[in-house]
Structures are given as C-alpha cells and as structure tokens.
Amino acid sequence: MYTQGIGRTQAQISLSPKKSVRLSHSGIGQGKTMGEIVNLNRVRKSKARAEKETKAEANRVKFGLSKAEKQAVRRERERQTEDLDGKKLDTPT
Which residues have CB under 8 Å from 35's CB, separation 6+? Predict the structure, then answer.
C-alpha cells in the first residue's frame, strides 16, 4: 500500500500488516533527502524493553530489601508499636 496525496507532506508504505515505513516528502527537490527507513518491529520491541526496565526499576525499589534489611525494618516497626502502646492511657470505667 502506497498512499500519497496532493499537498500532503508524508507518504506511507506498508510492507505487511505489521511492518510499515514512513517517508517524509517535505524536502524533496530542495536538496533534502527522504526520512530514514525504520523497522517497526525493532522500534516496538525496544519500546517494550524500555517499559519493562522502568517497571523492573520500580520493583527493585519496592521489593529490593535484603533479608537483614527486612528484619531490621520489622524490628523497628515492632519497637515503635510497643513504644506507642506503652504510652496509651487506660480509661477507668
């Protein structure tokens, strides 16, 4: 499929349902060359890899504590809870 319209600045060539190429026709005849041909599968995969890496980075922050660090956090939380419970006032009934 090749589409080009009068007054349009871009054409699209479709090689298959999954692969297509965009070419810029804006500078033809003015000493400029056509746009770079892009493999859309490669672009799609690199985008997916980048999203996966971003998610992995967030998970490393969220779940990335070592066993000793997790135990230290748990002990500190328990200490704070016990400290707070010790400061509560009993209400006489």
Answer: 22, 23, 24
pTM of the model: 0.36
Task: Dump pLDDT digits (tens) for 77-88.
Answer: 999 999 998 888
* 91 in a structural domain: no
Same domain, 77 and 65: yes
**3 is in which domain, residue-wise?**
1-38
- Is residue 8 domain-shared with residue 21, that is, in the same domain? yes
Strand partners, 23: 11
In Å, how far are 23, 26, 54, 68 from 10, measured between CA atoms? 6, 7, 33, 59
Instruction: Please write the tens of the pLDDT for every residue from 68-78.
Output: 998 999 999 99
CA–CA separation, 70 and 79 (whole Å): 14
